User: Fold these one by one.
Assistant:
Number 1:
Amino acid sequence: MENSVEKYLQEIAALIQRISENEFNRGYKAGLEAIQQALQHVPPVSTHRLTESKIDFSTNMEKAFGILPRGVSLQMVESIFRAAPSKALSPVQVAALIEDRDGKKMAETTLRRAIEKLENSGTIERIAGTPTWRLNPTGPARLESLG
């Protein structure tokens, strides 16, 4: 009797498995058909433009992503300090002056790195005990000579 009950339970389990697989397959098939129908309404994408055009990243990066070409941000920060040689400026003031003058927003990290490079080169000096910098009167004439 145990054999027949066990066999009956195995048959039920196999039937449930087949039903589950059939339902899954039907659902999968229906989903696949829905995707194929949706794709019929999507226009084909032409990659010709992308592969044939030459992208000049030095001028288009700013337009496309708001990213300044390499070295421009450093020159902008240096020019702000050169425009106010005796005035001590904080990074916030430098960013505000760049935005007012050039209409560009400079990322905090970019500004910090530019200030660090200018300080390391001796172009600007930090005012002791404050978060401000000023043009170093004995520093190099222009940062461009540093390379």
Number 2:
Amino acid sequence: MPYILTEAPLIACEDKGVYRSSTTISLKKEISSLAGTLCKFIVRARDWKTISDTERYVEVAVDEISGSVVQHGLVIAYFFESERTVSLPFTFYQSKRALSFQPSYEAGRVFITILGNFILNPQIEYTFRILVVNSRALKQRKKTNWCNFEQAIKVLNLIKQ
């Protein structure tokens, strides 16, 4: 069973149609250090798999999420929104709709669930980042605000040169 990173508000919204997925999400490892790994992936409208009228998800393979990381480390998901990177869960508000992104994970996989109403524009893409932190680095950096993307990548020395 996947681990829920944190709880997000449930939003009951009107469905705008069911969409079927037939694509695979590709993960790009951006940068790694001994302390952690930062990965990035992009989700397009056609990538979401339908659970119900108001709930969809994507599943992404992340080999860096080992059993040890699940038990003692940290996995946090971030969403790129309006020129900033925010930690999930996150609710995205637009005119007449709201979408709530809820992350969860298990060894080797991350799931992003989206709750809300679905007006699927094929041009819209959502960019996510996954930060995987090993237990040693997590213990050494107890005062880090992991929800702050800039602080997290700086303290782990995951900043691109």
